Amino acid sequence: MATPNYGYEKRQRELAKKQKKEEKARAKAQRQHEPGQDGEQPQPGADEAAPESGAGDAAAD
């Protein structure tokens, strides 16, 4: 009986991980170039929070 080639199996797992990681990075880059396509809407509260905190600090002084 032949012995298992663990090095080959490990290399195949590493290649699968690398391919999956590249696919995720490609999908993330595509989402960044096309905002709002996947049903994601920018949150209006996040944009409004920064000016309010700055205006509140200036008014307190």
From TrEMBL:
Organism domain of life: Bacteria
Cite the record's Basic and acidic residues compositional bias ranges.
Answer: 8-36
- Where is there biased composition of kind Low complexity? 44-61
Q: Where is this region: Disordered?
A: 1-61
Specify the protein name.
Uncharacterized protein
Q: Which organism is it from?
A: Hydrogenophaga atypica
